[in-house]
Amino acid sequence: MKKLMMKFLMISCNEATLLMAKKEEGKLSLMARIKLSWHTSMCVLCKKFEKQSLEIAKEARHVMAEEEMPFFTREKIGRLLEQELPGK
Amino acid sequence: MEKLKSKADPQKWLEQYGDLLYQYALPRVNDTSIAEDLVQDTFLSALKGLENYKGEASEKNWLFAILKNKIIDHYRKRSTEQAVLAIPDMHIMDDHWFNEEGGWVESRMPNDWQPASSLVERKEIQQIIAGCKDHLKTMQKNVFILKYMEDMNSGDICKVLNITPSNYWILIHRARLQMRECVEKKWLKT
Fold it and tell me: Fewest 10 Å CB contacts: which of A69, B80, B157, B189?
């Protein structure tokens, strides 16, 4: 019985990493949450994966390009805005 | 309202927020001319919509909200052509992270590294993320951008990109695996 339950709870690293993506959106059933936390409590690799993926998620929203708007584009937009300005 | 209109100074907008908006848009659309168009459209929409600007958000946040809508529209418009492109993306199985039992393949196991702590390090990892994102296949890149750089939820992303939820989870799963591996490689080199 105990063996059967263990087998039922066991998920692979492939499944666990997929469940982590769903977990971010609160889309996991209670059962899936139990399976996932049981897996990560034992699997060092998936634990690292989760931590590092969270780091990437945290920083991704702050990604900005380094280069500035090209000079000619700025000029062009500037002229356009001047024309469109209400009251002109 | 008239007061607001007369106060609007688009040249000042351009000067103050032009680069910021462009630097935000560029890594999210991956194309300089599209980014330029979106910034231009943002300013034009802002001018047209001055009456709707209630002054609740700061001018900067207001302009960014308009730009973010433009970015999503850009993806929505392209979704029909890209849904076709997604099909090959879905079936490429050359990305083996796991063996037949679903365990990590030894050469692709996550290594140890520390998250960015200082401001300089954070900028560094953000640039690495931007670079790695460009190596993703088209549809994986699209879901990654909308999910993690635009902070949308999966349901909205499916609608915008015109894909099914099951396709979405396959794409985002692979994108996450690919991104973590790429960021790790570059981050450990710094």
Answer: B189
B144: chain A residues, CB-CB within 8 Å? 60
- A53: Cβ–Cβ under 8 A, 6 or more apart, which residues? A20, B176, B179, B180
Is the minimum CB–CB distance between A17 and chain B shorter than 8 Å? yes
B151's torsion region: left (phi>0), alpha (psi -120 to 50) or beta? left
Each residue's pLDDT tens digit, A34-58 = 999 999 999 999 999 999 999 999 9
Chain-chain contact of B113 with A52 (C-beta, under 8 angstroms): yes
List of chain B residues whose C-beta atoms are within 8 Å of the C-beta of residue A25: 153-154
Among partner residues B11, B98, B177, which is closest to A78 by beta-carbon distance? B11
Q: What six digits make up the tokens of B10?
A: 């688009």
3-class SS of residue B98: strand
Amino acid at the residue B23: Q
Local mean pLDDT, 10-residue blocks, chain B (190 residues): 54 90 96 95 89 76 94 89 57 74 94 92 96 94 97 95 92 96 92
CA distance A83 to A62: 33
Interchain contact, A12 vs B8, CB within 8 Å: no
In 3-state terms, what secondary structure has residue B104?
strand
Cβ-count burial of B109 within 10 angstroms (0-12 exposed, 13-18 middle, 19+ buried)? middle
User: What's the predicted TM-score (pTM) here?
Assistant: 0.90
DSSP A18: H
**Structure-block tokens of residue A53:** 């993926």
The minimal CB distance from A45 to the residues B10, B109, B133 is found for B109
8 A C-beta contact, residue A36 and residue A12:
no
CA separation for the pair B142, A61 (Å, rounded): 14
